[in-house]
Amino acid sequence: MSLQPARGTHDLIGEEFRRHRHVIDTARRIASLYGFEEWATPVFEDTRVFARSLGDTSDVVTKEMYTFEDRGGDSVTLRPENTAGVCRALVSNGLTQSNLPRKVFYAGPMFRYERPQKGRYRQFHQIGCEILGAAEPLSDAEAIACGWHILTELGIEDGTVLEINTLGDTESRDAYRAALVAYFASHAERLSADSRTRLEKNPLRILDSKDAGDRRLIEDAPTIHDHLTPAAADFYATVKRHLDRLGVPFRDNPRIVRGLDYYGHTAFEFVTDRLGAQGTVMAGGRYDGLVEEMGGPHTPSIGWASGVERLALLLEASGRTPAAPRPVALVPVGEAAEGPALDLLQSLRRAGVAAEIAYKGNLKKRMERANRIGARAAVILGESELAEGVAQLRDLDAGTQDRVALDALVQRLAGGAA
């Protein structure tokens, strides 16, 4: 029996890996333009980091977390998301009292036990940005603008729309929660079992339900916009005004929610119609109480996360898979040419030129391999060429060949010519 990847995991190879890396490299580069510094937190944490931050009624906590006791008897969890880990890191590294706001970028694997499907795995990867310690609407707009910039830089913004909503301040949410309880309680017999539980513990989470019956009820549910305080309404209007100035298109969607108490004000999703049912490619919101959940002081924050696999699928659908670098193939002819070929091989690599050499074979076999690896040029070194201090440089696209002095070869190939 041949061994296969564990269910819900997959290998990243070839074009798929190039797309994956391109997403992360692009996001890292754009985030740095906005002043984000990269942090790396552990892949597993004390289970309380996620249990207290995601809430005991969330699907992630109740159904999807990979939680186990280690050999010391401590309960640890493979991270299902990274915002909680970043907030924990802010507190445990003593960074809550100075140099705020902190602008953090991250990239790495996450783990959730859920039904695998295209673009969704049990080990998946996310990029994310968090602005920790900023209460102003401009920080919300800037975090969103960074996400939009990443999507446009990847060239996958077509068919992708920013949907935005507000969760208001505490007073707004209290009034809205009461309205939701009254509405859903009057239809309790039509709610799914999960939503009936949420009605008692966290009614906002009903709005996240995927159950078909729940969705029909949600269509007629009250929205928070009728319950916003003047201050909350002004905050939301200011965020949208900043987005306009930053050139980020959006539309209002009053059904976007974040169901935990420390979430407030801005909530948003970038959605696409090009991935079937998996339409959300980036999502986030303001979480002014999460750092306090980790034992720190009140630290208003805003952030988002995006699935690398989904972004890579959009790259593939757009025909934007990055090309592999095309190397130069070194082709020594005869034993005496191998030493000089190795010298030239490393000189090219030190000059930033991708270069390869076949480990064995005659001229014909080595040239076949050069074509197989997609080399742009072949450098042929034989005894007569070495005696004259030259090499035969063959352009494998044009099929032309000329003699080039050995001491001029690196500079010519480093310039991109063959």
Automatic annotation (TrEMBL):
Primary site of residence: cytoplasm
Protein keywords: Aminoacyl-tRNA synthetase, ATP-binding, Cytoplasm, Ligase, Nucleotide-binding, Protein biosynthesis
MF terms (GO), sorted A to Z: ATP binding; histidine-tRNA ligase activity
Subcellular location: Cytoplasm
InterPro entries xrefs: aa-tRNA-synth_II, aa-tRNA-synth_II/BPL/LPL, Anticodon-bd, Anticodon-bd_dom_sf, His-tRNA-ligase, HisRS-like_core, HisRS/HisZ, HisRS_anticodon
Binding, L-histidine: E81, N82, T83, R112, Q126, E130, R258, Y262, Y263
Superkingdom field: Bacteria
Keyword set includes Cytoplasm: yes
GO biological processes: histidyl-tRNA aminoacylation
A cellular component annotation (GO) from this entry: cytoplasm
PROSITE patterns xref list: AA_TRNA_LIGASE_II
The keyword Nucleotidyltransferase appears for this protein: no
UniProt record similarity statement: Belongs to the class-II aminoacyl-tRNA synthetase family.
Subunit relationships: Homodimer.
PANTHER family (UniProt xref): HISTIDINE--TRNA LIGASE, MITOCHONDRIAL-RELATED, HISTIDYL-TRNA SYNTHETASE
Name of the protein in question: Histidine--tRNA ligase
Organism: Roseomonas acroporae
Chain's gene name: hisS
